[in-house]
């Protein structure tokens, strides 16, 4: 059948490439609202370490799915996906343009590819056993276990991403089914344009390093200490992420602040290198040079060249 499909624009790219600034310009030019696609911006009180858009930036354009839960609350991919789809529908209903912005590739793929996410509640006892196994035998051994039961999932999950490997093992242990089979896909009924911002690697690394320095100047270490003093432990997913975990050795008196800051820069470089693998798979993806002086005009040309909604066919 034919149907008029609303448009959504997704802005992706490595951390520090310039997504936030560009998304604000684009949203203001195209009457849009921003849906954050970032697994860490959902946490309240975690502002500097996550490079959360500032209150002033959020005041310029309405943002969704920022500051949703406390750092110790569970917030799964399934929960995020449902909330994001609801936000997108609300934006469309108000005749505005949904602009999805973020660097969490798994979350973006789940939205744009329409993943069916297994409804399997966390089994903390099982997870603890897998975590102990990873600590004793190494993450590679755990990944080999996944390879044996679900080669397709193992091919898409990095062995170093122990949390995702454990989740795949957990789903199989609880349901007897492979997570790769449970994650069926039904793309959402939207026209999609994915804008992948890119910069030369050396320039990106320099921007990352500069941003880390600014975060520290603005009080990143104080933010981390404040969270710990509020009772949020290092073991929480929120606290074990980039921008926070690097300061654990400082808290424990094992490293200097300078060493921890250097480690944060190094880890962020590594994270940026890995992000692209997710972005390259996204639908209707167009690479854009983030340094281009007329990015907005480029996007308007891309939109003008897209098929009219009536020409889009949906198979049911």
UniProtKB/TrEMBL annotation:
Catalytic activity: adenosine(37) in tRNA + dimethylallyl diphosphate = N(6)-dimethylallyladenosine(37) in tRNA + diphosphate
Cofactor(s) needed for function: Mg(2+)
EC numbers: 2.5.1.75
One GO BP: tRNA modification
Residue ranges, annotated region (Interaction with substrate tRNA): 38-41
Residues that bind substrate: 15-20
Keywords tagged on the record: ATP-binding, Magnesium, Nucleotide-binding, Transferase, tRNA processing
Top-level taxon of the source organism: Bacteria
GO MF term set: ATP binding; tRNA dimethylallyltransferase activity
InterPro entries reported in the protein's UniProt record: Dimethylallyltransferase, IPT, P-loop_NTPase
Site for Interaction with substrate tRNA, residues: 104, 127
Matches recorded under Gene3D superfamilies: 1.10.20.140, P-loop containing nucleotide triphosphate hydrolases
Positions contributing to ATP binding: 13-20
Record-linked Pfam families: IPPT
Functional summary from the UniProt entry: Catalyzes the transfer of a dimethylallyl group onto the adenine at position 37 in tRNAs that read codons beginning with uridine, leading to the formation of N6-(dimethylallyl)adenosine (i(6)A).
Oligomer status and interactors: Monomer.
Family: Belongs to the IPP transferase family.
Protein name, as recorded: tRNA dimethylallyltransferase
Biological source species: Herpetosiphon geysericola
């Amino acid at each position: 059948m034919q149907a008029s499909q609303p448009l959504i624009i997704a802005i992706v790219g490595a951390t520090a490439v310039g997504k936030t600034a560009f998304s604000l310009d684009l949203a203001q030019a195209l009457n849009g609202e921003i849906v954050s696609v970032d697994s860490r911006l959902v946490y309240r009180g975690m502002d500097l370490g996550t490079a959360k858009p500032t209150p002033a930036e959020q005041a310029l354009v309405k943002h969704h799915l920022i500051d949703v839960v406390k750092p110790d609350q569970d917030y799964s991919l399934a929960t995020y996906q449902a909330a994001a789809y609801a936000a997108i529908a609300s934006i469309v209903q108000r005749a505005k343009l949904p602009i999805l912005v973020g660097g969490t590739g798994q979350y973006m793929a789940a939205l744009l590819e329409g993943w069916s996410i297994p409804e399997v509640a966390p089994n903390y006892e099982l997870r603890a056993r897998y975590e102990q196994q990873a600590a004793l035998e190494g993450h590679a051994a755990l990944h080999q276990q996944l390879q044996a039961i679900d080669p397709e999932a193992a091919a898409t999950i990095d062995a170093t991403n122990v949390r995702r490997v454990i989740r795949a093992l957990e789903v199989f242990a609880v349901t007897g089914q492979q997570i790769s089979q449970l994650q069926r896909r039904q793309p959402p009924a939207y026209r999609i344009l994915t804008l992948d911002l890119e910069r030369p690697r050396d320039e990106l690394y320099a921007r990352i390093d500069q941003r880390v320095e600014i975060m520290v100047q603005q009080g990143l270490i104080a933010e981390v200490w404040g969270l710990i003093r509020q009772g949020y432990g290092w073991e929480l997913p929120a606290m074990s992420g980039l921008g926070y975990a690097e300061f654990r050795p400082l808290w424990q008196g094992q490293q200097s602040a300078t060493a921890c800051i250097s480690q944060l820069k190094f880890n962020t470089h590594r994270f940026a290198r890995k992000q692209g693998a997710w972005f390259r798979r996204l639908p209707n993806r167009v690479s854009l040079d983030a340094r281009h002086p007329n990015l907005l005009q480029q996007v308007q040309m891309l939109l003008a060249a897209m098929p009219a909604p009536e020409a889009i066919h949906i198979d049911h």
